[in-house]
Design goal:
The chain is of the alpha/beta class. The chain has seven helices and eleven strands. It is globular and about 45 Å long.
């Protein structure tokens, strides 16, 4: 596990290229968002997604949300209407997860049994790395099942440390999980957690 400061990754072109390459190839990262620290990988890499599922003790039927590499990715990988598109344009980037109906282009590991996909675009500098990678990036909290999310990278549970390739450090994050909107229809609902 290699620990890097986000500010260094963003400023150093060689380091940035290395991290973006690792993201594309399916390496597992712990990273900061506008809400909490996340753990994730390229959502198209089923083996890495499964490692995260196993270490977190996540039920097989429960999928992970993804950070989209941009809004164009959302428009081409999920079903949106004019109403939902306008709402997404207002909310993202931001501390929200949008649930949409997946289409045939959506990476299978991110699609639920109901054919839905949770999508984020955090308002955070780390998001620029996801955008540069061009791949949807799994996003889930850094914690073991039933435990609160970690606030700093020094608190990452040992089991999770064991599967992580890179930790992107950005200090303490005192946020809360993202607010979830179900936009599978034009009757938009807030989902309670």
């Amino acid at each position: 596990m290699e620990k890097l400061k986000l500010v260094d990754v963003l400023r150093n072109a060689a380091l940035r290229k290395r991290v973006v390459g690792a993201m594309k190839s399916g390496k597992i990262l712990v990273y900061p968002t506008d809400t909490i620290y996340g753990i994730g990988c390229n959502a198209e890499n089923a083996m890495s997604v499964e490692k995260i599922r196993n270490v977190k003790g996540r039920d097989d039927g429960k999928t992970f949300s993804v950070i989209a590499p941009g809004k164009e990715w959302i428009w081409s990988h999920a079903n949106v209407t004019k109403v939902t598109r306008d709402m997404i344009d207002k909310l993202l980037p931001g501390p929200y997860t949008i649930i949409l109906t997946a289409n045939s282009k959506t990476p299978k590991p991110a699609v639920s049994a109901e054919r839905s996909v949770g999508i984020r675009i955090p308002r955070h500098p780390f998001t620029a790395l996801v955008e540069e990678s061009g791949v949807p990036f799994v996003t889930t909290s850094v914690n073991m099942k039933g435990q609160p999310p970690v606030k700093g990278t020094g608190d990452i549970p040992p089991d999770i440390r064991g599967v992580v390739d890179f930790v992107i450090e950005a200090g303490i994050i005192e946020g809360f999980a993202s607010r979830v909107f179900d936009m599978r229809t034009d009757d938009i609902r807030v989902v309670r957690r």
